[in-house]
């Protein structure tokens, strides 16, 4: 019974923690993109035009990369190097 409860908690808790941390990383990515857009506006304009075909605000690009990075961090490659 304890294994069943642990499995149920794990199945509910892991995706919730992953989604919440991805949202936090999305906000941090948006802040980084906004700051990068202030410092290097032409770079973000050219990059967004090349990737999306139109100019996308830098904070949206940062938010997208932060959100995707958050999921890769949680559900990516689980192998750890043995040092």
Number of helical stretches of at least 4 residues: 3
Q: Which blocks of ≥5 consecutive residues have pLDDT under 50?
A: none
Q: Beta-strand level of the residues, as a percent range? A: under 5%
H/E element order: HHH
Q: Rg from C-alpha positions?
A: 18 Å
Largest sheet: none
Mean pLDDT: 85
How widely separated are the two ends?
37 Å
Specify the structural class: mainly alpha
Describe what you observe in this structure.
The relative contact order is 0.17. Helix 1 crosses helix 2 and helix 1 (2-39) packs antiparallel against helix 3. The longest helix is centred in the first third of the chain and has 38 residues, at 2-39. 82% of the residues lie in helices and 0% in strands. The radius of gyration is 18 Å and the shape is elongated. With 83 residues, the chain is mostly helical. It has three helices and no strands. The chain has helices at 2-39, 41-52, 58-75.
């Amino acid at each position: 019974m304890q294994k069943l409860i642990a499995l149920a908690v794990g199945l509910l808790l892991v995706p919730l923690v992953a989604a919440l941390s991805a949202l936090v990383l999305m906000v941090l990515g948006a802040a980084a993109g906004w700051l990068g857009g202030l410092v290097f506006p032409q770079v973000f304009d050219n990059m967004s035009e090349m990737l999306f075909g139109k100019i996308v605000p830098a904070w949206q690009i940062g938010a997208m990369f932060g959100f995707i990075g958050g999921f890769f961090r949680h559900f990516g490659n689980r192998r750890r190097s043995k040092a």
